[in-house]
Amino acid sequence: MTTILVTGGTGTLGRIVVERLRDAGEHEVRVLSRTARPYAVDLCKGGAGLDAAVAGVDTIVHCASAPNGGDEQAARNLIAAARRAGVRHLVYISIVGVDRVPLGYYRAKLAVERQVEQSGLGWTVLRATQFHDLLIRLFQALAKLPVMLVPAGVSDQPVEVAEVADRLAELALAAPAGRVEDLGGPEVRGLDDLARSYLGATGRRRPLVRLPLAGKAYRGFRSGGHLAPAHRVGKGTFDDHLATRLGAGPARGR
Prior knowledge:
The chain has 254 residues and is of the alpha/beta class. It has helices at 14-24, 48-54, 71-85, 104-117, 132-142, 161-172, 191-202, 216-222, 238-246; strands spanning 2-7, 27-32, 59-62, 89-95, 122-128, 148-151, 155-156, 178-179, 189-190, 208-211. It has a 6-stranded parallel sheet, with helices on both faces. It has a two-stranded parallel sheet with strand order 6-10. Helix 3 runs parallel beside helix 4 and helix 7 (191-202) packs parallel to helix 9 (238-246).
């Protein structure tokens, strides 16, 4: 029986990865997060708790991430512990565009990719486009104003988180594969179009205003650096997700 450790195993993506791996059977699946016992570990601090979590582990699926900072230190601590424990395979989930969009969080994710590649461990890196849930959180925040402001000229290619979890579980159960093909959602749509679907599904009425922004990161998003149109692997659309999550009918075009 192999032992697989999932970091961030209680998060949006990690908890589904854990479910998929447990459903596959014949594996011990450990969950590491800051609060999940018995492997409650702060990866940024490392320490004896981390060594105990990785002891006897064959494969690590690294889903833990902190958009507010700390990913690089967390990866250093995790990789060092994995080396000490003789871990065979490290699987890392990254984001499409980390090498093309100069956003601070993306730079950190790219730096972690480099750490994984240079770790001396067997490794696999999967990049995915943004999850549907991220767009919903964005639109929830933007819809609080009487007028809904969306960045002008920006498109997105959201993907269903469960489909990314399926792919990560598949990769975790296979041999190290290096950088694998990106996983993108099925549609590339303008943010304003996606926002209209959200408003229609939630019954909100807001005028939409396309707001030009400044900066290198915005230019990177406008140029589509975060998109993977050649890798429309996902099946579930944003409208499908809205219908499932909100119980709404077809939202597009409302």
